[in-house]
Amino acid sequence: MTATASPSALAGEFPAAERDQWVLQAAKALVRNLAPDDDPERVIARLRSTTYDGIVIEPLYTGESGGEGAGADSGDMIAAGFPGFSPFVRGRTAGGTRADGWDIRQIVDAGEPDFTATAELENGATSLWLDTRSLPTVDRDALATALSGVYLDLTSVTLESGNAWPAAAEALIQLWSSNDVAGESAKGSFGADPFGAYVSTGGSAEAMKTLSAATEFAGRLATTHPQVRVIAVDATRFHNAGGSDGQELGYALAVLVETLRAFEAAGLDLATSFRQIELRLAATSDQFATIAKFRAARRLLARIAEVAGVPAAAGDTQIHAVTSLAMMTRYDPWVNLLRATTACFGAGIAGADAITVLPYDVARDPSGSELGRRIARNTQSILAKESNLTQVVDPSGGSWYVESLTDQLAHAAWASFQQIEVAGGVVAAVDSGIIAHQIDAAWQARRRNIVTRKDPLTGVSEFPNVLEAPPPPRSTVVASGGGVLPLHRYAEPIEALRERVDHVTDQTSVRPAVFLVNIASPAVHTARATFAKNLFEIAGLVTIAGPGSTDPEELGAQFAASGAAVACICSSDAMYGELGVHVAAALRAHDPAVVYVAGRPKDIIDELTAAGVDGFIAAGADVEQTLSDLLQRLDVP
């Protein structure tokens, strides 16, 4: 007699977990002694956050909450599909694998002799992004010098030439010809973006003068140079101006559609038109948002291609990821290494065709240092080659969180795109100020979160290194923004404070100091003293921690001996109620410029103010305003 094995379910002996069980356990983790009548759902609500597109990020996603159509009517969208097939959300190449990984695209300044194109290629880059804007004249000879030693039949060259791109494009075609590079072997992009430039400049007629040239090049090269793209829809201009992810995608879609219309009007068929376009998006340190954005971009492209009647053509539009310039900091630039690595990881996981990692010190020097450029290349080499990120297509696919975020972000972007269409298209939306107004609203919301530290910036608004050598004087950072869409680096409002203090310190050789007046034992004052230290050092002020005491006169003497001009009282609310007024009076006897209290003991604020306290610092306060007021009191220009 033969025994027959019965099928078994993995972990089938355990009862199925319900969401309510998770909510209860999560609430208990957040509230140590959760009362029986406390609502767990209300407790875990503090774990929710909202993006700048109004998307609510839930603390938990399940099969019921994630995936296609979550939270929105998705009747006008396309399902994610299978890897390698339309709508290409899960990978562009049919079959689903990209054995050679993504294109490691390195920026080369054609006018900068210290960083050559051949050096970039020899050290890990697989293609070049050639910036010709610093050249006095862009012609074949100038490009030949910049690309000396490069095998042009093997190397893809993308141009960055602003409104002068037609001359640069013609020069590159001539260079290919003089080097006997056959049209079918030539690879790259001319980087034209007339509609995008029109947006950035707020309606400059100069930006649109090259539109006819773009259509002419597209028609002329469509069959002879099949691997050359004329248009680069550069959506990083929207991101770097402070726009949300949904705005970046939506406006990019609007520019792309206007470009398709121009090509169609010139007699180019739509399938060919999609092959003439590359889409450029920003990758940020928000890993999951980056993954969702690039997946949503593919889905949106597929929708446009479907409406145009050429659904398969969406896969012919390549997506180029560039690590966010807006997220880069001038202070503590080493943290930028982590930001760029996370951004590159997210874009790579999401299936970007090409990735450019900006040097970690690009906010200090537009070209980046040799070390910065080397690390930028090696970051990609490690992720693509050593970590094998390209061996699995769309590894985040199927994640309830990623699928839900992709879906909701696609809908937010589609809504932004529809607003532009209703306004009459990109040109009309620029002329009426819609795009600039919407992006500025998103930037102001982000700026508020930055200066209140709701959006922390490590090394700048959190854990600053006050003894760090100041960065070199500001120089012009080359960015895709400009005009009505200026570059807004997230750290700028905070870094401006630090620069003021560094300038005074450089002149006087003395860094302004704040004395932390610690009342009682470390167990009582440490939490608020640590908070105060971090806050004042944001502006580059050095903090001196007092040894602590419960004697007001002794605390006043400690402050006087420190030589600091500013005092900050640090302790618990209970100690403030007992000793706060007396300590404030004792400090005032030594004539400090400013006296602060760490915290907001609401019951005795009036009494402390009457005793000589000038201000209260607490979580959620506008640190830009608080520290600006302090620097003004200290006569720091």
In summary, what is this structure?
With 637 residues, the chain is an alpha/beta fold. The protein has helices spanning 19-30, 40-44, 117-122, 140-146, 165-178, 194-200, 205-208, 211-221, 236-240, 245-265, 270-275, 287-307, 335-349, 370-386, 400-422, 426-431, 434-451, 492-508, 522-538, 552-562, 573-588, 605-610, 623-633, and strands at 49-50, 56-57, 103-109, 127-131, 156-160, 188-192, 228-234, 277-283, 318-323, 354-356, 513-518, 542-545, 566-570, 594-598, 615-617.
Overview of the molecule:
By secondary structure, this protein is α/β, with parallel strands linked by helices. It has 23 helices and 15 strands. It is globular. The model is unreliable at 67-78, 94-98 and 476-482 (pLDDT under 50).
Q: Tags for this entry?
A:
five-stranded parallel β-sheet, 23 helices, 637 residues, alpha/beta, globular, eight-stranded parallel β-barrel, 15 strands
